[in-house]
Write a structure and sequence with these properties.
It catalyses: L-glutaminyl-[protein] + H2O = L-glutamyl-[protein] + NH4(+). Belongs to the CheD family. InterPro entries: CheD-like_sf (IPR038592), Chemorcpt_Glu_NH3ase_CheD (IPR005659), Cytotoxic_necrot_fac-like_cat (IPR011324). One of its GO terms (molecular function) is protein-glutamine glutaminase activity. This protein has helices at about 65-80, 110-125, and strands spanning about 5, 10-15, 20-25, 30-35, 40-45, 85-90, 125-130, 140-145, 150, 160. The protein has a five-stranded mixed β-sheet with strand order 1-3-8-9-10, with no helix packed on it. The two termini are about 25 Å apart. The chain is of the alpha+beta class. The protein is globular and about 45 Å long. It has a single domain, classed as 2-Layer Sandwich (60s Ribosomal Protein L30, Chain: A).
Length: about 160
Amino acid sequence: MAKMVKVGMADLNICHSPDAITTLGLGSCVGVALYDKNTKTAGLVHVMLPDSTKVRQNQNRAKFADTGIDYLIELLEKEGAKKSSLTAKIAGGAQMFAFSSSNDMLRVGERNVEAVKDKLKKLGIRILAEDTGLNYGRTVEFYPETGDFIIKSVGKLVKTI
């Protein structure tokens, strides 16, 4: 019986097919699914903030785009995934509050998406699909058997990317 592995906020985990992995309530946070189709191993990190170097209390590596993605890759490699085979799908990064301000502190979603994309580019990991931005929260599920990233949002059709 396949199980659904849950990932909390500022958390990460990995799974192997036939299991799947999910995280709930991505608002300005970004869910980054990394996947090695050869081993059918996947990982998901729920990124809350873009940059660990800007925060004093940053022991939680999963919380930040820069350290969370590195940490997830370490765990995937321990499970037999190859960094050179990894691809990514990302979702989240919404602007949850209507501010017309250009204040960076309020643009957390946008900054999270930028930080995730920058980090993946530096690591040479291709983003195959994304569902980011706009102004609504998302719950995501990743299925390593098929590579499907299912995105659910209140009042929206279920999307598979």
